[in-house]
Amino acid sequence: MNSPSPLRTFVWVEELAEELDVPLRRLRHWRRVGKGPKAFLIGRRLAYDRTDVRKWLDRQREQAS
């Protein structure tokens, strides 16, 4: 996988699924049920802001404690 550009603050849904090692279908399901990180569309593609993903991961860790 290529490293993101320093200017790119978002990640495509396919890239995030790979980074989190979860199926793409699971990320899409989490979005539908409001369980995953905030997502947004760029054109017709689903993207996630890396800051929102980090906050979501931090909340997941806190809830698991």
Please render the helix and strand layout as text:
Blueprint: E1 10-12, H1 13-20, H2 24-33, E2 40-42, E3 45-49, H3 50-64
Antiparallel strand pairs: 1-3, 2-3
Helix pairs in contact: 1-2
Gist of the model:
Helices cover 51% and strands 17% of the residues. The protein is of the alpha+beta class.
Number of extended strands:
3
Give the SSE string: EHHEEH
* Mean pLDDT across residues: 91
Low-confidence stretches: none
Structural class: alpha+beta
Separate helix tally = 3
Shape call = globular
Question: Which strands sit side by side, in order, in the main sheet?
Answer: 1-3-2
Main β sheet profile:
3 strands, antiparallel
- How many independent structural domains? 1
Roughly how many Å apart are the termini? 31 Å
CA radius of gyration is 12 Å
Beta-strand content estimate: 15-25%
Helix content: 40-55%
Describe this structure in words.
This protein is α+β, with helices and mostly antiparallel strands and 65 residues long. It has one domain (10-64). 51% of the residues lie in helices and 17% in strands. The protein has 3 helices and 3 strands. A 3-stranded antiparallel beta sheet has the order 1-3-2. Strand 2 (40-42) and strand 3 form a beta hairpin. Helix 1 (13-20) packs across helix 2 (24-33). The protein starts with 9 loop residues before the first strand and ends with a helix.
